[in-house]
Amino acid sequence: MIKSVRIRLLPNNKQKAKLFQFAGASRFAYNWALDKQMNNFWEGRKLQSDYDLRKEFTVLRNSGEKPWLLDISNNVTKQAIKDLCIAYKNFFRKQKQPGYIKYSPKKLAYLARIDKKPTAYDMNGHPKFRSKKNGDFRFYQDNVKIQFTNTHVKLESIAGSKKKNRQRLNWIRLAEKGRIPVGMKYTQPRITFDGENWWLGIGFVVKHKLKPMRGLKFVRKQPKRPYTEGVGIDLGIKDLAIISDSTVVKNINKSHTIKKLKKKRRRLQRQVSRKYQMNKKGDSYCKTSNLIKSEKQLLRINHRLANVRVNHVHQATRTIINRKPRFICLEDLNVQGMMKNKHLSEKLQEQNLYEFRRQIEYKAHWAKIPVVIADRWYPSSKTCIECGYVNKDLKLSDRTYVCPHCGNVIDRDFQAALNLERYGEVELSKSA
To answer: What tens-digit pLDDT sequence spans the chain (432 residues)?
Structure first.
Protein backbone atom coordinates (compact mmCIF):
# COMPACT_ATOMS: atom_id res chain seq x y z
CA MET A 1 0.00 0.00 0.00
CA ILE A 2 1.21 3.52 -0.84
CA LYS A 3 0.49 6.32 1.62
CA SER A 4 1.06 9.95 0.67
CA VAL A 5 2.09 12.84 2.93
CA ARG A 6 2.12 16.58 2.30
CA ILE A 7 4.44 18.47 4.61
CA ARG A 8 5.56 22.10 4.76
CA LEU A 9 9.21 23.02 4.17
CA LEU A 10 11.10 25.74 6.07
CA PRO A 11 13.88 26.83 3.68
CA ASN A 12 16.25 29.73 4.33
CA ASN A 13 16.69 32.57 1.82
CA LYS A 14 19.41 30.83 -0.24
CA GLN A 15 17.36 27.65 -0.41
CA LYS A 16 14.27 29.61 -1.45
CA ALA A 17 16.20 31.16 -4.35
CA LYS A 18 17.32 27.70 -5.54
CA LEU A 19 13.80 26.29 -5.22
CA PHE A 20 12.45 29.09 -7.42
CA GLN A 21 15.22 28.36 -9.97
CA PHE A 22 14.27 24.68 -10.06
CA ALA A 23 10.59 25.54 -10.51
CA GLY A 24 11.48 27.98 -13.31
CA ALA A 25 13.56 25.35 -15.12
CA SER A 26 10.72 22.83 -14.84
CA ARG A 27 8.28 25.36 -16.27
CA PHE A 28 10.68 26.21 -19.11
CA ALA A 29 11.14 22.53 -20.08
CA TYR A 30 7.38 21.92 -20.00
CA ASN A 31 6.61 24.96 -22.18
CA TRP A 32 9.48 24.12 -24.56
CA ALA A 33 8.13 20.60 -25.09
CA LEU A 34 4.55 21.86 -25.52
CA ASP A 35 5.71 24.39 -28.13
CA LYS A 36 7.53 21.59 -29.99
CA GLN A 37 4.45 19.37 -30.02
CA MET A 38 2.20 22.18 -31.23
CA ASN A 39 4.63 23.00 -34.07
CA ASN A 40 4.60 19.32 -35.06
CA PHE A 41 0.79 19.42 -35.14
CA TRP A 42 0.57 22.59 -37.26
CA GLU A 43 3.13 21.28 -39.77
CA GLY A 44 1.30 17.96 -40.12
CA ARG A 45 3.97 15.82 -38.46
CA LYS A 46 3.42 13.10 -35.89
CA LEU A 47 3.79 14.09 -32.24
CA GLN A 48 7.21 13.25 -30.83
CA SER A 49 7.63 10.60 -28.14
CA ASP A 50 8.82 11.26 -24.62
CA TYR A 51 12.23 9.72 -25.42
CA ASP A 52 12.81 11.90 -28.50
CA LEU A 53 11.85 15.11 -26.70
CA ARG A 54 14.15 14.42 -23.76
CA LYS A 55 17.00 13.52 -26.07
CA GLU A 56 16.53 16.79 -27.99
CA PHE A 57 16.35 18.77 -24.76
CA THR A 58 19.64 17.22 -23.58
CA VAL A 59 21.28 18.56 -26.75
CA LEU A 60 19.87 22.02 -25.98
CA ARG A 61 21.07 21.78 -22.39
CA ASN A 62 24.65 20.96 -23.37
CA SER A 63 24.83 23.39 -26.29
CA GLY A 64 25.58 26.43 -24.12
CA GLU A 65 22.58 28.35 -25.46
CA LYS A 66 20.95 28.17 -22.02
CA PRO A 67 23.92 27.93 -19.59
CA TRP A 68 21.71 28.28 -16.50
CA LEU A 69 20.19 24.86 -17.26
CA LEU A 70 23.48 23.20 -16.26
CA ASP A 71 22.95 24.40 -12.67
CA ILE A 72 19.65 22.50 -12.47
CA SER A 73 19.28 18.77 -11.86
CA ASN A 74 18.65 16.83 -15.06
CA ASN A 75 15.81 14.88 -13.40
CA VAL A 76 13.76 18.06 -12.93
CA THR A 77 13.58 18.94 -16.63
CA LYS A 78 13.21 15.32 -17.79
CA GLN A 79 10.20 14.76 -15.55
CA ALA A 80 8.60 18.02 -16.74
CA ILE A 81 8.75 16.76 -20.35
CA LYS A 82 7.39 13.39 -19.24
CA ASP A 83 4.49 15.19 -17.50
CA LEU A 84 3.61 16.91 -20.77
CA CYS A 85 3.50 13.61 -22.65
CA ILE A 86 1.23 12.18 -19.93
CA ALA A 87 -1.01 15.25 -20.27
CA TYR A 88 -1.31 14.61 -24.02
CA LYS A 89 -2.20 10.94 -23.42
CA ASN A 90 -4.94 12.03 -20.99
CA PHE A 91 -6.18 14.55 -23.57
CA PHE A 92 -6.50 11.90 -26.28
CA ARG A 93 -8.15 9.46 -23.86
CA LYS A 94 -10.70 12.10 -22.82
CA GLN A 95 -11.66 12.66 -26.47
CA LYS A 96 -12.70 8.99 -26.79
CA GLN A 97 -15.03 9.15 -23.80
CA PRO A 98 -18.79 9.31 -24.53
CA GLY A 99 -20.30 12.77 -24.19
CA TYR A 100 -17.02 14.60 -24.76
CA ILE A 101 -17.62 18.30 -25.62
CA LYS A 102 -14.94 19.61 -27.93
CA TYR A 103 -15.19 23.30 -26.97
CA SER A 104 -16.79 24.79 -23.89
CA PRO A 105 -19.59 27.35 -24.52
CA LYS A 106 -17.71 30.01 -22.52
CA LYS A 107 -14.61 29.54 -24.66
CA LEU A 108 -16.60 29.80 -27.90
CA ALA A 109 -18.34 32.97 -26.66
CA TYR A 110 -14.98 34.53 -25.73
CA LEU A 111 -13.42 33.68 -29.10
CA ALA A 112 -16.47 35.12 -30.87
CA ARG A 113 -16.09 38.41 -28.98
CA ILE A 114 -12.46 38.81 -30.04
CA ASP A 115 -13.25 37.57 -33.58
CA LYS A 116 -10.98 34.53 -33.45
CA LYS A 117 -11.52 30.98 -34.68
CA PRO A 118 -11.11 28.09 -32.20
CA THR A 119 -7.93 26.05 -32.54
CA ALA A 120 -6.75 22.71 -31.15
CA TYR A 121 -5.17 24.60 -28.23
CA ASP A 122 -8.65 25.82 -27.17
CA MET A 123 -10.10 22.29 -26.97
CA ASN A 124 -11.25 20.95 -23.60
CA GLY A 125 -8.44 19.10 -21.84
CA HIS A 126 -5.61 20.30 -24.11
CA PRO A 127 -2.36 20.96 -22.17
CA LYS A 128 -1.83 24.66 -21.42
CA PHE A 129 1.37 26.68 -21.10
CA ARG A 130 2.55 27.14 -17.53
CA SER A 131 2.64 30.74 -16.38
CA LYS A 132 4.92 32.38 -13.83
CA LYS A 133 2.35 35.16 -13.45
CA ASN A 134 -0.27 32.70 -12.24
CA GLY A 135 2.10 31.28 -9.62
CA ASP A 136 2.91 27.95 -11.27
CA PHE A 137 5.93 26.90 -9.19
CA ARG A 138 6.40 23.12 -8.95
CA PHE A 139 9.02 20.54 -9.82
CA TYR A 140 9.99 16.90 -9.35
CA GLN A 141 12.77 15.34 -7.32
CA ASP A 142 14.41 11.98 -7.96
CA ASN A 143 12.81 9.40 -5.65
CA VAL A 144 16.11 7.49 -5.29
CA LYS A 145 18.36 10.44 -4.39
CA ILE A 146 15.98 12.12 -1.94
CA GLN A 147 16.87 11.45 1.73
CA PHE A 148 15.09 12.08 5.02
CA THR A 149 15.89 12.47 8.68
CA ASN A 150 13.38 13.17 11.44
CA THR A 151 13.80 16.92 10.95
CA HIS A 152 15.28 17.52 7.45
CA VAL A 153 15.00 16.46 3.82
CA LYS A 154 17.92 16.36 1.39
CA LEU A 155 17.14 17.51 -2.16
CA GLU A 156 19.31 16.92 -5.20
CA SER A 157 21.74 19.57 -6.58
CA ILE A 158 20.56 22.49 -4.43
CA ALA A 159 24.20 23.27 -3.57
CA GLY A 160 26.53 23.91 -6.52
CA SER A 161 29.72 22.96 -4.65
CA LYS A 162 30.68 19.61 -3.12
CA LYS A 163 32.35 21.18 -0.08
CA LYS A 164 30.92 20.17 3.28
CA ASN A 165 29.91 23.69 4.32
CA ARG A 166 28.09 24.16 0.97
CA GLN A 167 26.44 20.74 1.10
CA ARG A 168 24.37 21.95 4.05
CA LEU A 169 22.19 23.83 1.54
CA ASN A 170 20.87 20.49 0.31
CA TRP A 171 19.24 19.82 3.68
CA ILE A 172 15.96 21.70 4.14
CA ARG A 173 14.17 21.76 7.48
CA LEU A 174 10.73 20.17 7.80
CA ALA A 175 7.91 21.87 9.69
CA GLU A 176 6.91 18.61 11.48
CA LYS A 177 9.29 16.17 13.13
CA GLY A 178 9.08 12.46 12.36
CA ARG A 179 6.15 12.82 9.96
CA ILE A 180 7.89 10.94 7.13
CA PRO A 181 9.49 7.56 7.97
CA VAL A 182 13.22 7.21 7.26
CA GLY A 183 14.67 4.58 4.94
CA MET A 184 11.48 3.76 3.05
CA LYS A 185 10.83 3.32 -0.66
CA TYR A 186 9.56 6.73 -1.83
CA THR A 187 7.42 7.56 -4.87
CA GLN A 188 6.70 10.77 -6.80
CA PRO A 189 8.34 13.49 -4.65
CA ARG A 190 6.91 16.86 -5.76
CA ILE A 191 7.76 20.31 -4.40
CA THR A 192 5.16 23.07 -4.86
CA PHE A 193 4.76 26.73 -3.87
CA ASP A 194 1.26 27.99 -3.00
CA GLY A 195 2.13 31.70 -2.95
CA GLU A 196 3.04 31.66 0.73
CA ASN A 197 4.86 28.43 1.65
CA TRP A 198 6.81 25.61 0.02
CA TRP A 199 5.32 22.12 0.33
CA LEU A 200 6.64 18.63 -0.26
CA GLY A 201 4.26 15.87 -1.36
CA ILE A 202 5.61 12.32 -1.35
CA GLY A 203 4.35 8.75 -1.22
CA PHE A 204 5.94 5.79 0.52
CA VAL A 205 5.23 2.07 0.51
CA VAL A 206 3.72 0.67 3.71
CA LYS A 207 3.64 -3.05 4.39
CA HIS A 208 1.12 -4.68 6.72
CA LYS A 209 2.75 -6.39 9.68
CA LEU A 210 2.03 -10.12 9.68
CA LYS A 211 2.62 -12.60 12.48
CA PRO A 212 3.60 -16.23 11.77
CA MET A 213 1.17 -18.96 12.76
CA ARG A 214 1.50 -22.72 12.26
CA GLY A 215 4.71 -22.82 10.31
CA LEU A 216 4.59 -21.06 6.96
CA LYS A 217 1.10 -19.58 7.26
CA PHE A 218 0.83 -15.84 7.83
CA VAL A 219 -2.37 -14.05 8.86
CA ARG A 220 -3.16 -10.42 9.59
CA LYS A 221 -3.66 -9.35 13.16
CA GLN A 222 -7.29 -9.34 14.20
CA PRO A 223 -8.82 -5.87 14.72
CA LYS A 224 -9.02 -4.69 18.31
CA ARG A 225 -12.70 -3.79 17.99
CA PRO A 226 -15.37 -5.82 16.20
CA TYR A 227 -17.16 -4.31 13.23
CA THR A 228 -20.50 -2.61 13.94
CA GLU A 229 -23.52 -2.34 11.65
CA GLY A 230 -23.20 -0.71 8.24
CA VAL A 231 -24.02 2.97 7.72
CA GLY A 232 -25.59 5.00 4.94
CA ILE A 233 -24.43 8.61 4.49
CA ASP A 234 -26.51 11.29 2.78
CA LEU A 235 -24.54 14.40 1.78
CA GLY A 236 -26.24 17.77 1.65
CA ILE A 237 -26.00 21.56 1.83
CA LYS A 238 -27.88 22.30 5.06
CA ASP A 239 -25.62 19.81 6.87
CA LEU A 240 -22.48 18.21 5.49
CA ALA A 241 -23.64 14.64 6.15
CA ILE A 242 -26.55 12.82 7.74
CA ILE A 243 -25.72 9.28 8.88
CA SER A 244 -28.24 6.46 9.22
CA ASP A 245 -27.55 6.15 12.98
CA SER A 246 -29.13 9.66 13.34
CA THR A 247 -25.73 11.40 13.64
CA VAL A 248 -25.49 14.77 11.88
CA VAL A 249 -22.20 16.29 10.69
CA LYS A 250 -22.65 20.06 10.95
CA ASN A 251 -21.97 22.51 8.13
CA ILE A 252 -18.72 24.24 9.08
CA ASN A 253 -19.55 27.22 6.84
CA LYS A 254 -22.27 28.27 9.31
CA SER A 255 -19.76 28.55 12.16
CA HIS A 256 -18.59 31.85 13.64
CA THR A 257 -14.99 31.24 12.53
CA ILE A 258 -15.83 30.92 8.84
CA LYS A 259 -18.26 33.86 8.87
CA LYS A 260 -15.65 36.08 10.51
CA LEU A 261 -12.96 35.09 7.99
CA LYS A 262 -15.30 35.64 5.02
CA LYS A 263 -16.23 39.10 6.32
CA LYS A 264 -12.55 39.98 6.67
CA ARG A 265 -11.90 38.65 3.16
CA ARG A 266 -14.66 40.82 1.65
CA ARG A 267 -13.14 43.95 3.19
CA LEU A 268 -9.66 43.06 1.95
CA GLN A 269 -10.97 42.37 -1.56
CA ARG A 270 -12.58 45.81 -1.71
CA GLN A 271 -9.38 47.34 -0.36
CA VAL A 272 -7.23 45.62 -3.02
CA SER A 273 -9.67 46.66 -5.77
CA ARG A 274 -9.54 50.33 -4.68
CA LYS A 275 -5.73 50.28 -4.61
CA TYR A 276 -5.62 48.86 -8.13
CA GLN A 277 -7.87 51.67 -9.39
CA MET A 278 -5.79 54.31 -7.60
CA ASN A 279 -2.55 53.04 -9.18
CA LYS A 280 -3.92 52.62 -12.70
CA LYS A 281 -1.72 54.20 -15.39
CA GLY A 282 -3.42 54.04 -18.75
CA ASP A 283 -4.26 50.42 -19.52
CA SER A 284 -1.77 48.96 -17.01
CA TYR A 285 -1.59 48.79 -13.23
CA CYS A 286 1.33 49.70 -10.98
CA LYS A 287 1.83 47.41 -7.99
CA THR A 288 2.95 49.26 -4.87
CA SER A 289 4.40 47.74 -1.71
CA ASN A 290 1.14 48.27 0.19
CA LEU A 291 -0.81 46.56 -2.58
CA ILE A 292 1.50 43.53 -2.50
CA LYS A 293 1.14 43.44 1.31
CA SER A 294 -2.66 43.48 1.06
CA GLU A 295 -2.63 40.71 -1.55
CA LYS A 296 -0.49 38.54 0.75
CA GLN A 297 -2.98 39.08 3.58
CA LEU A 298 -5.82 38.09 1.23
CA LEU A 299 -3.93 34.96 0.15
CA ARG A 300 -3.34 34.03 3.79
CA ILE A 301 -7.07 34.32 4.57
CA ASN A 302 -7.96 32.14 1.55
CA HIS A 303 -5.51 29.48 2.73
CA ARG A 304 -6.96 29.69 6.24
CA LEU A 305 -10.50 29.18 4.93
CA ALA A 306 -9.47 26.18 2.83
CA ASN A 307 -7.54 24.61 5.72
CA VAL A 308 -10.47 24.97 8.16
CA ARG A 309 -12.86 23.28 5.71
CA VAL A 310 -10.51 20.42 4.84
CA ASN A 311 -9.71 19.85 8.52
CA HIS A 312 -13.44 19.61 9.28
CA VAL A 313 -13.86 16.95 6.56
CA HIS A 314 -10.85 15.02 7.91
CA GLN A 315 -12.26 14.99 11.44
CA ALA A 316 -15.72 13.92 10.24
CA THR A 317 -14.43 11.07 8.07
CA ARG A 318 -12.02 9.85 10.73
CA THR A 319 -14.85 9.72 13.29
CA ILE A 320 -16.96 7.62 10.91
CA ILE A 321 -14.10 5.20 10.16
CA ASN A 322 -13.22 4.83 13.86
CA ARG A 323 -16.68 3.37 14.50
CA LYS A 324 -15.66 0.35 12.41
CA PRO A 325 -18.90 -0.01 10.42
CA ARG A 326 -19.46 -3.23 8.49
CA PHE A 327 -19.82 -1.17 5.29
CA ILE A 328 -20.33 2.45 4.18
CA CYS A 329 -22.84 3.39 1.49
CA LEU A 330 -22.56 6.76 -0.29
CA GLU A 331 -24.56 8.30 -3.11
CA ASP A 332 -22.99 9.14 -6.47
CA LEU A 333 -23.71 12.86 -6.74
CA ASN A 334 -23.46 14.76 -10.03
CA VAL A 335 -21.60 17.67 -8.47
CA GLN A 336 -20.62 19.13 -11.86
CA GLY A 337 -24.26 19.29 -12.91
CA MET A 338 -25.35 20.67 -9.53
CA MET A 339 -22.79 23.47 -9.82
CA LYS A 340 -24.73 24.88 -12.79
CA ASN A 341 -27.42 26.06 -10.38
CA LYS A 342 -26.39 29.66 -9.68
CA HIS A 343 -28.31 29.73 -6.39
CA LEU A 344 -26.51 26.68 -4.95
CA SER A 345 -23.11 26.68 -6.67
CA GLU A 346 -21.26 28.68 -3.99
CA LYS A 347 -22.69 26.59 -1.13
CA LEU A 348 -21.84 23.34 -2.94
CA GLN A 349 -18.30 24.50 -3.59
CA GLU A 350 -17.76 25.34 0.08
CA GLN A 351 -19.04 21.94 1.27
CA ASN A 352 -16.20 19.91 -0.34
CA LEU A 353 -18.51 16.98 -1.20
CA TYR A 354 -16.03 15.28 -3.50
CA GLU A 355 -13.27 15.61 -0.88
CA PHE A 356 -15.56 13.94 1.67
CA ARG A 357 -16.15 10.98 -0.64
CA ARG A 358 -12.44 10.72 -1.55
CA GLN A 359 -11.37 10.64 2.09
CA ILE A 360 -14.02 8.08 3.02
CA GLU A 361 -12.89 5.81 0.18
CA TYR A 362 -9.17 5.78 0.95
CA LYS A 363 -9.56 5.69 4.74
CA ALA A 364 -12.05 2.83 4.46
CA HIS A 365 -9.57 1.02 2.19
CA TRP A 366 -6.91 1.34 4.91
CA ALA A 367 -9.35 0.04 7.54
CA LYS A 368 -10.58 -2.86 5.29
CA ILE A 369 -14.15 -1.50 5.24
CA PRO A 370 -16.11 -1.98 1.98
CA VAL A 371 -17.57 1.17 0.39
CA VAL A 372 -20.75 0.89 -1.71
CA ILE A 373 -21.56 3.69 -4.16
CA ALA A 374 -25.29 3.91 -4.86
CA ASP A 375 -26.52 4.46 -8.41
CA ARG A 376 -26.79 8.12 -9.39
CA TRP A 377 -30.50 7.77 -10.19
CA TYR A 378 -31.42 5.83 -7.06
CA PRO A 379 -34.31 7.83 -5.42
CA SER A 380 -33.00 7.73 -1.85
CA SER A 381 -34.91 10.86 -0.73
CA LYS A 382 -38.14 10.08 -2.60
CA THR A 383 -38.57 6.47 -1.43
CA CYS A 384 -40.62 5.85 1.73
CA ILE A 385 -38.62 3.82 4.25
CA GLU A 386 -41.81 2.15 5.58
CA CYS A 387 -43.77 1.06 2.48
CA GLY A 388 -41.32 1.71 -0.40
CA TYR A 389 -43.60 4.23 -2.18
CA VAL A 390 -41.66 6.62 -4.51
CA ASN A 391 -42.96 10.20 -4.36
CA LYS A 392 -41.87 11.68 -7.69
CA ASP A 393 -43.41 15.08 -6.85
CA LEU A 394 -41.04 15.73 -3.95
CA LYS A 395 -39.33 19.14 -4.31
CA LEU A 396 -36.01 20.34 -2.97
CA SER A 397 -37.83 22.82 -0.72
CA ASP A 398 -39.75 19.98 1.00
CA ARG A 399 -37.51 19.21 3.97
CA THR A 400 -39.98 16.78 5.56
CA TYR A 401 -41.19 13.70 3.71
CA VAL A 402 -44.90 12.91 4.07
CA CYS A 403 -45.85 9.61 2.43
CA PRO A 404 -49.27 9.86 0.68
CA HIS A 405 -49.58 6.06 0.76
CA CYS A 406 -48.95 5.11 4.39
CA GLY A 407 -48.79 8.53 6.09
CA ASN A 408 -45.18 8.20 7.24
CA VAL A 409 -43.67 11.55 8.33
CA ILE A 410 -39.85 11.75 8.49
CA ASP A 411 -36.98 14.10 7.73
CA ARG A 412 -36.07 13.62 4.08
CA ASP A 413 -32.29 13.60 4.63
CA PHE A 414 -32.48 11.05 7.46
CA GLN A 415 -34.74 8.88 5.31
CA ALA A 416 -32.22 9.09 2.45
CA ALA A 417 -29.48 7.85 4.82
CA LEU A 418 -31.67 4.92 5.93
CA ASN A 419 -32.45 4.01 2.32
CA LEU A 420 -28.74 4.13 1.47
CA GLU A 421 -27.99 1.77 4.37
CA ARG A 422 -30.60 -0.66 3.04
CA TYR A 423 -29.16 -0.29 -0.49
CA GLY A 424 -25.68 -1.17 0.79
CA GLU A 425 -26.92 -4.27 2.56
CA VAL A 426 -28.65 -5.51 -0.60
CA GLU A 427 -25.57 -4.88 -2.78
CA LEU A 428 -23.24 -6.61 -0.33
CA SER A 429 -25.54 -9.64 -0.13
CA LYS A 430 -25.51 -9.84 -3.94
CA SER A 431 -21.72 -9.75 -4.09
CA ALA A 432 -21.45 -12.34 -1.31
So the answer is: 788 899 999 999 999 999 999 999 999 999 999 999 999 988 888 999 999 999 999 999 999 899 999 989 999 999 999 999 999 999 999 999 888 889 988 899 999 999 999 988 999 999 999 998 888 999 999 989 999 999 999 998 888 777 776 788 889 999 999 899 888 899 999 999 998 999 999 999 887 554 444 444 434 444 555 667 889 999 988 999 999 988 899 999 999 999 999 999 999 999 999 999 988 888 888 888 999 999 999 999 999 999 999 999 999 999 999 999 999 999 988 888 888 888 888 999 999 999 999 999 999 998 889 999 998 888 888 888 888 888 888 887 888 888 888 888 888 889 899 999 999 998 888 876
Give this prediction's pTM: 0.83
Sequence-distant (6+) residues with CB within 8 A of 286 are: 279, 280
Instruction: Show the DSSP H helices in 213-352 as ranges.
Output: 256-278, 289-322, 335-338, 345-351
DSSP assignment, residue 199?
Answer: E
Residue 111 has, within 13 A of its CA and on its CB side, a CA count of 14
Cα(109)–Cα(115) distance, integer angstroms: 10
Q: What's the number of CA atoms in the CB half-sphere (13 Å) around residue 402?
A: 2
E strands in 341-420 = 371-374, 400-402, 409-411
